[in-house]
Amino acid sequence: MSTMLVQGGTVVSSTGRTRADVLVDGEKIVALLAPGQATLGVDVAGSVDTVIDATGRYVIPGGIDAHTHMELPFGGTNASDTFETGTIAAAWGGTTSIIDFAVQRTGERVETGLAAWHDKAAGNCAVDYGFHQIVGGVDEYSLKAMATLADEGITSYKLFMAYPGVFYSDDAQILTAMQKAAELGLLTMMHAENGPAIDVLAQQLYDQGKTTPYFHGVARAWQLEEEATHRAIMLADLTEAPLYVVHVSAKQAVAQLAAARDRGKNVFGETCPQYLYLSLEEQLGALSSPGDGPDWGDFEGAKWVCSTPLRSRAEGHQAAMWQGLRTNDLQMVSTDHCPFCMKDQKELGKGDFRAIPNGIGSIEHRLDLMYQGVVTGEITLERWVELTSTTPARMFGLYGVKGVLQPGADADIVVYDPAGHTAIGVGAGRTHHMNMDHSAWEGFEIDGHVDVVISRGEVLVADGEFHGRVGHGRYLKRGLSQYLL
């Protein structure tokens, strides 16, 4: 068991910041010490195996991305990041734990889907990982299987109000699943969009010859996100099941969450970096620039096709997401990392936006993109840590082991340099380790830099090099949510 001291930095938590040195023994944090403190007469820095100099930098708990989709089958292809490539990219960006989604599709058994995801991930992860369970077919068998999830360390499951014929659950199925979840203490995660109505609008647009990626956003109108969010809240209210709405993008959906929370309900929401920075007009409606890589023409916007979709900047959705994060009407920022290459994957939808695989790759950039919000005054430094690490740990039953720098916690530590700089994108001098042929964040500049990443006492990233290893990542058997009222 090796020992380590991260010294000279400013430790930032969700509640404040202080100058402190972090002492690590093996995989655990054992003490936070006053800078340069001699403990019981012992020169700590001189007695440990490794000293990490964090002078002038922030020392924060490792990031937790609670919404990822490695190797997800979707739209006739699979998400391009494997658990190996995706977790290595996560480590580069300061994320030391992920929670991915095991998939049960309509007609399959929950146990079969879960076993398949364990097989995909085991021995292939560079950072620690847990699972949520997608329940794509609510019936007597899946309801029975839900009762075993907590024993497996899976205390949250996801339903879809979108994607009829693939993952979709109707109101009756949602009601019965929520009744079971309330009984078991499971957290219901909801993709809140009115899928059948979206399909009608999408068909109408296609029939009118409106087939480019821009119309993906038009078909998935904000009214259909607000309506589904309200409906999910009402069903959760009736069943007394805690509700967590994923990838919130519409300001009207935030208003529904805020109203429920004002009534004292266990209703929560996450948003994603793409809904804070990107838009319908600028990205989904983009045209290729001459000489700027492959010429995709008016199909360029496919790079940013995801669901829920990017919203109109003119309507103020992005500003509303930041506001929701400040007021805690939105509690977390995850990525919904579901990457697809343009070549041979996104291009399946050329001529028909409905066939474009839905997803953006962001796992490497979440910590940086959110830190830029600190720089620009959108959120505080403490809120940055809360949104990206502490609340994900509390929401999904990991807090105390993850999400905090304190004695007994896993030594998941990031040293972040506020004077550093990160150029996002593909190519020389830019960061890109995800298994994609483009970056959805090409050209973004961050006024900060992830310098050192430590997972359970093992250095994964330092000095601009990856020192981690596939197989280091360990399965996280989660407890019940620690965030409920």
Please describe what this structure looks like:
- This protein has 14 helices and 25 strands.
- The protein is an alpha/beta fold and 485 residues long.
- The protein has two domains: 125 residues, Urease, subunit C, domain 1; 333 residues, TIM Barrel, CATH 3.20.20.
- α5 crosses α8 and α8 runs parallel beside α9.
- It starts with a strand and ends in a 19-residue tail after the last strand.
Q: How many structural units, i.e. domains? A: 2
- Kindly state the percentage of residues in helix: 25-40%
What are the low-pLDDT stretches, counting only 5+ consecutive residues below 50?
none
CATH class of the largest domain reads Alpha Beta
Mean pLDDT: 96
Structural class: alpha/beta
Radius of gyration: 22 Å
Strand fraction equals: 15-25%
What's the N-to-C terminus distance?
A: 39 Å
> What is the name of the CATH superfamily of the largest domain?
Metal-dependent hydrolases
What is the topology, as strand order, of the major beta sheet? 10-13-14-15-16-17-18-19
Overall 3D shape:
globular
* Helical segment count: 14
Query: Which second-level CATH architecture of the largest domain applies?
Result: Alpha-Beta Barrel
Largest sheet: 8 strands, parallel
